[in-house]
Design goal:
Blueprint: E1 2-7, E2 12-15, E3 18-19, H1 24-34, E4 38-42, H2 43-48, E5 59-63, E6 74-77, H3 80-87, E7 95-99, H4 101-107, E8 113-119, E9 127-128, E10 138-143, E11 147-149, E12 152-161
Length: about 180
């Protein structure tokens, strides 16, 4: 599994349920990386898309604890057990975690790679991603050339998790 996110120099990723930055080059990178793949998100991320509609040419999976939530074109799961049951049908390299913060926090230990757009700027944020530079299991594997947009410098970086956590399936009492 992979994840993809844009983070400022304080690892801020959002404010008031919006992205901090909206760089065309970053959006194109996101599209290129996730097209024809599986994307996993929370409900707020899904609802932040235009019209609350799923991303085109992707398998959209929404992890949402609320029973009964449905959205056309979206596979909705209510637990990590259900999520990992669904993900078992897909090649791990083709799965991307795309947010929000609680989804990243729950799933980043299970990801092999993190594609981070590191932005050399900061804005007031209320949502943060874990600082992978301080995580013992994560190493910076690659940093792209500097890119510039709106007078801001950013880099496409690839981090690798050297100790990917395996999901422990819950033992369901009705199966014993």
């Amino acid at each position: 599994m992979n994840l993809i996110v844009a983070a400022d120099k304080n690892w801020g990723i959002g404010a008031k349920n919006n992205l901090l930055y909206n760089f065309k080059q970053d959006m194109n990178f996101f599209k290129e990386m996730t097209m024809d793949k599986v994307v996993v998100m929370g409900r707020n991320t899904l609802e932040s898309f235009p019209g609350g509609k799923p991303l085109k040419r992707r398998i959209n999976i929404c992890l949402n604890a609320e029973e009964g939530f449905e959205r056309e074109g979206v596979i909705v799961v209510t637990s990590l057990d259900q999520l990992f049951e669904k993900l078992a049908f897909y090649e791990s390299d083709n799965i991307f975690i795309i947010g929000g913060a609680s989804i990243y926090k729950q799933l980043y230990p299970y990801c092999k790679y993190a594609y981070i757009t590191k932005i050399e700027d900061s804005k007031e944020a209320d949502t943060f991603f874990p600082n992978l530079d301080k995580e013992k299991d994560w190493v910076l594997a690659k940093t792209g050339d500097p890119m510039y947009e709106d007078n801001t410098v950013f880099y496409f970086c690839k981090y690798e998790n050297k100790n990917v956590k395996k999901y422990n399936w819950a033992i369901k009492p009705d199966l014993i």
